[in-house]
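pasting for ref
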Amino acid sequence: MLRLLRTNFTDATLKFNAEITLAELQQLDVSEITLLTLKQAGLVGQIAKFAKVIKSGQLTRRVTLEGIAVTAGAKAAIEAAGGSIA
């Protein structure tokens, strides 16, 4: 039986994932943010199928995220600013 080594294996789906920081969300002028909004603003690539918000930077205004994943720290920061995650 032939055994293949799994060294230098990268997942082919990683190119469809994107990360967004709270600082980048702060710069957007819209309050309801979807994946399409992020693509139109140029914050994620056009081939991205999933986006995740990470806690890096400050968010001081109210935003509503729809269909976007968030980390636990980012969720706390968004809700502290009066925002919500749908």
